[in-house]
Write a structure and sequence with these properties.
Elements lengths: L1 E4 H14 L5 E5 L6 E8 L2 E7 L4 E6 H15 L5 E7 L13
Antiparallel strand pairs: 1-6, 2-3, 2-6, 3-4, 4-5
C-alpha cells in the first residue's frame, strides 16, 4: 500500500501495468477508502476498469486509452483529494476484498 499524490498516481499505475503480467492489477482508493477505481490487466494490451463511488461502472479499455479514462475518473471520484491510496492486486479475487474504512 502506498499513499501517493493524486497527480502522479496515473503514471504510477501505467508503469506498474507495463511491467505486470495478467491477471495482476491496481486499486486506487480515496484516503478514507470509501471510493475507488480498480484496474485489472486482462491481456497484454487490454484492461478491466471498475469504478465504485459516485458512479458504479465497469468497462474494458486498451492501455493506450487508459490515461485519458483514468484522468476523467480521478477528477470525478477524488475531486478534492490530494493523496490517494494504491494497492497492488495479484489476482481478480482481490477485487471484491473489503478494505478497512477510516
Amino acid at each position: 500500500m502506498a499513499l501517493v499524490n493524486r497527480d502522479s498516481a496515473i503514471q504510477y499505475v501505467l508503469n506498474f501495468l507495463k511491467k505486470s503480467i495478467p491477471p495482476q492489477g491496481v486499486e486506487i482508493l480515496s484516503y478514507k477508502r470509501i471510493r475507488g477505481v480498480s484496474v485489472m490487466l486482462i491481456a497484454k494490451d487490454l484492461v478491466l476498469v471498475r469504478e465504485r463511488g459516485y458512479l458504479e461502472q465497469e468497462f474494458e479499455s486498451k492501455i493506450s486509452e487508459l490515461h485519458r479514462h483514468l484522468k476523467t475518473i480521478m477528477k470525478r471520484e477524488f475531486p478534492r483529494s490530494r493523496k490517494v491510496r494504491i494497492y497492488q492486486l495479484k489476482s481478480s479475487e482481490e477485487l471484491n476484498k473489503e478494505r478497512k474504512k477510516i
